[in-house]
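Would you mind writing out a protein's amino acid sequence and the numbers that encode its backbone to help me picture the idea?
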Amino acid sequence: MYYLNDDKVAIDFVENNLKNSAISSITYLEILVFPYDEEEDKKVRDFLELFKIYDVDRNLLDIAIKTYRTKKVKMADNLIGSTAKLYNLTLVTRNVDDFKNMKLDILNIYE
């Protein structure tokens, strides 16, 4: 979201790391639920298509179920964090506290 709002830190990070970056289909959903006009919607979709997108599958759901039962992480955050866990990815987020109980490799590019 910060990239789409022309945040310089986010733009620099994405431009330097795009080839190694991916997003969860949940992140895709969270970004696209905003009421963009037609032109903005196309711009956002074009941007999101630059990333590898990990879909929700049975393996991911099993990890998310276990995490929810033991850690009580909110479902959207749980699915995003579980995606990072399943695929051994570093989760880039400013909302570090949302994932603190998940034992993930987390990077806050603003710190």
Q: What stands out?
A: The first strand starts at residue 22 and ends at 24. The chain has a mean pLDDT of 94.
